[in-house]
């Protein structure tokens, strides 16, 4: 008796090749973005307790705490779906699986929303160390943050 083999699964590929301009985004300095996130109190509380002297000044001086900022892919996608974000920064490792990259590319080219997507290499390694987080795959900024960030990035 011969055994039947299951038919091979179909592999669907997209005809679109989405260019995220990753090489062009390598020159972006993340220091001002890190300072903005720290001023918005997005730092993990554990490190704040370790740095007690800085913690008091951090807690008193959080001018950006009430701004719309999301850290993490799930929180960023939820805010994107409710039209709260203007900029989304993604780590290059987030879009490396082709399925995720295609979905993010389709979201970025969606004409109904005005959100701009930026894929930045080594975003997670740079920002996660400063915020004491294990991984940062996405960061979203609302309309109330964009003008302030533009000024910071120009300097």
CATH superfamily: Ribosomal protein L30/S12
Give the distance, in angstroms, between the N- and C-terminal Cα atoms.
Answer: 75 Å
Helix content: 40-55%
Task: Report the sheet-strand fraction.
Answer: 5-15%
What does this molecule look like?
It contains seven helices and four strands. The protein has helices at 31-39, 45-50, 52-60, 73-81, 98-108, 123-131, 143-154; strands spanning 69-71, 85-91, 116-120, 138-142. Helix 5 (98-108) links the parallel strand 2 and strand 3 (116-120). Helix content is 42%, strand content 13%. The protein is an alpha+beta fold. The protein has a single domain (24-154), classed as 60s Ribosomal Protein L30, Chain: A. The model has no long low-confidence stretch (mean pLDDT 79). It has a four-stranded mixed sheet.
Put the structure in a nutshell:
By secondary structure, the chain is an alpha+beta fold.
Strand and helix map with partners:
Blueprint: H1 31-39, H2 45-50, H3 52-60, E1 69-71, H4 73-81, E2 85-91, H5 98-108, E3 116-120, H6 123-131, E4 138-142, H7 143-154
Identify the notable features of this structure and list them briefly.
60s Ribosomal Protein L30, Chain: A, elongated, four-stranded mixed beta sheet, alpha+beta, 155 residues, 13% strand
